[in-house]
Design brief:
The complex is a heterodimer of chains A (302) and B (267).
Chain A: E1 4-6, E2 9-11, E3 15-29, H1 33-43, H2 50-53, E4 56-63, E5 74-81, H3 84-99, E6 106-109, E7 116-118, H4 120-123, E8 132-136, E9 139-146, E10 149-154, E11 156-173, H5 176-191, E12 196-197, E13 204-205, E14 209-211, E15 220-222, E16 244-252, H6 255-269, E17 278-282, E18 293-296, H7 297-301
Parallel strand pairs in A: 2-17, 6-10
Antiparallel strand pairs in A: 1-2, 3-5, 3-6, 3-11, 3-18, 4-5, 7-11, 8-9, 9-10, 11-16, 11-17, 12-16, 13-16, 14-15
Chain B: E1 3-8, E2 16-17, H1 23-26, H2 31-35, H3 48-51, E3 52-55, E4 58-67, E5 71-72, E6 79-87, E7 99-104, E8 120-123, E9 143-149, E10 163-168, E11 184-187, E12 203-206, E13 218-224, H4 226-237, E14 247-253, E15 261-266
């Protein structure tokens, strides 16, 4: 069967293998968009992979004054972990250390849902008895006195168990420059879409991994099949003219959201065609036996 | 299906207890059954059929037309559905209601929204004493929901209120927020004397500086309150445009009791 091609770029017939996660969305507002973004970036810092960060998090999108509960500029943030307890702990610590502390900030629920996570509920004790509870339209908010006034924080936020982590695209090309440019375009296109984040630095990861290692205690190690410098020594997945590979990892509140993001990503990468130096678009999987979600590139393109 | 309408015939010579006329009770009843419901409050038997002309069918939307200040307990213990009143109402409008909506075009008597726990009561004109106060036999006043009063209120607005939001377009009477446990009053036309008397927790939000402030309220100065922005936007979502802005003077009190309440006077 001939390979599927878009503008000369080969879409490898494979699939991205993804895993169930739990996720939540919160809304951070501030007096200015600049400060809402500072707070959100701080909160989602060091959250590239659950392997060592405890959570995967990122900015979903910015929100206009019309979209936020208090009418100030805001940012929607997504946070993912592997189970509800870990998500609760990460949410408390990250909001407590990075949003509560941020000048002029306020924090609201960004997700409905039966399952609730505590948001302001544990943070209210920072008020040392001076905190005030306010209920508006069935939702409880906490007003916690701080040095620049009050930290306003909704009591709880929603949680979804239908989140998916590890949707991905691998981009292969004839130069590092071309692959980086293509991935940057893709991340930008995905950033427009609801319900997804790309948790790695700038949305892109260069150190794709395989499970296990020759060293004891090292649970993951470099993906040698995709390391261009090892083409001559290992069972490489790369053609000889591929100089660099970059990966975009996508976490989403639903499998559909990831599907849409991968679709937008592939088309953004392929925009300039093979002339840009991009040769292949592929995806990472573990043979299909580990993760229940399989995103076949062929279906996504079509 | 058209709304269930109760049109007042003549003014009965006794007060009426209209608490049975809520959707929960009327659902599925025939017109004959409805007309037989007793609503009198004296030894003289008085039924719905005696006092009202009954029209329509849908008990989820009930209309009262031509009622007066002797029609008590309209929407009491309402648990859902909508009630529209074209006229004045008597005491205990929406008392102990848990959900649903009541709209009154005229004025309400005493204890409007007393001990209500949810839903929305909207009174176009004035309300009597103890609006959002404790219903008979209750230790606490309003415990949740939303009460709006377009005109003035009597004394003791929000007495012993525990939770919920009250917005008054006109002037509140004396002792507004008296002995309030928690909750929020938005007072757009000021209040009489002794506002916040015995206030434990809760907020009295004045859009203009009140004339009299109890000496047991302690000034914390002016600062920004994101909460006011949240409240302003939430109110706009319900169709009320009230400019609250973010800045207010905060007075804490009543220091004669717990003192964790506040007056927020918009700056």
């Amino acid at each position: 069967m001939p390979d599927l091609k878009i503008k000369g770029i080969t879409i490898v017939e494979t699939f991205a293998e993804a895993f169930p996660m739990v996720g939540t969305r919160i809304i951070i507002t501030a007096p200015t968009m600049e400060w809402a973004l500072i707070s959100a970036r701080t909160m989602t810092g060091f959250a590239t992979s659950v392997i060592a960060c405890g959570a995967e998090a990122g900015i979903e999108r910015t929100l206009s004054r019309k979209e936020t509960p208090d009418g100030r500029p805001g940012v929607a943030v997504l946070l993912f972990t592997m189970d509800a307890d870990k998500l609760q702990k990460q949410l408390r610590n990250r909001v407590g250390q990075c949003v509560l502390t941020s000048p002029g900030s306020a924090c609201f629920a960004g997700l409905e849902g039966e399952k609730r996570l505590k948001l302001g509920a544990p943070l209210r004790f920072f008020g040392d008895g001076w905190q005030m509870s306010k209920v508006l339209g069935g939702k409880r908010y906490w007003r916690i006195p701080v040095m620049d006034g009050e930290f306003l924080c909704e009591d709880t936020t929603g949680m979804t168990k239908k989140a998916v982590g590890g949707g991905n695209l691998l981009v292969l090309g004839k130069s590092h420059e071309s692959v980086l440019a293509a991935c940057t375009r893709a991340v930008k296109a995905m950033a427009e879409l609801p319900g997804v984040i790309t948790p790695f630095p700038g949305g892109i990861v260069r150190s794709g991994s395989k499970v296990g290692s020759k060293y004891k205690g090292q649970i993951a190690s470099t993906n040698d099949a995709y390391s261009p410098g090892l083409k001559g020594a290992v069972n490489s997945a790369l053609p000889l003219d591929v100089e660099a590979v970059l990966e975009i990892v996508i976490d989403g509140l639903t499998a559909d959201a990831i599907h849409m993001a991968m679709h937008a990503g592939i088309h953004a990468i392929a925009k300039g065609g093979s002339r840009t130096g991009v040769t292949h678009i592929s995806a990472g999987n573990y043979g299909g036996n580990l993760g229940p979600h399989h995103f076949h590139l062929k279906e996504i393109v079509g | 299906m058209s709304a269930l309408v109760f049109e007042m015939k003549d003014t009965p010579d006794q007060r009426l207890d209209l608490s049975p006329l809520v959707p929960e009770r009327l659902n599925g009843l025939s017109r004959k059954d409805i007309q037989a419901i007793e609503i009198g409050t004296t030894r003289e038997t008085l039924t719905v059929g005696d006092a009202f002309k009954v029209k329509g069918k849908n008990a989820q939307e009930i209309h009262f037309d031509g009622t007066d200040e002797r029609c008590d307990k309209i929407g009491a213990k309402l648990a859902g559905g909508e009630i529209f009143v074209d006229g004045d109402v008597g005491s205990q409008l929406g008392a102990r209601m848990t959900d649903g909506k009541i709209e009154v075009k005229g004025s309400a008597g005493v204890l409007a929204g007393a001990s209500m726990t949810g839903g929305h009561v909207a009174i176009r004109r004035d309300a009597g004493d103890q609006a959002a106060g404790p219903a008979f036999g209750e230790t606490m006043g309003m415990k949740g929901g939303f009460l709006t009063i377009g005109g003035d209120t009597g004394a003791l607005l929000g007495e012993r209120m525990r939770r919920g939001l009250v917005v008054v377009g006109g002037k509140a009477g004396d002792y507004a927020g008296g002995r309030m446990i928690a909750g929020t009053l938005v007072l757009r036309g000021g209040a009489g004397r002794y506002a916040g008397y015995g206030l434990r927790r809760g907020s009295l939000i004045f859009t203009e500086k009140p004339k009299d402030i109890l000496p047991t309220f302690s000034d914390s100065g002016v600062m920004e309150f994101d909460y006011l922005l949240l409240l302003e936007k939430w109110l706009r979502g319900t169709g009320m445009r009230i400019k609250l802005g973010g800045r207010a003077r905060r007075l804490m009190g009543d220091m004669a009791v717990l003192g964790k309440g506040e007056m927020l006077i918009l700056a």
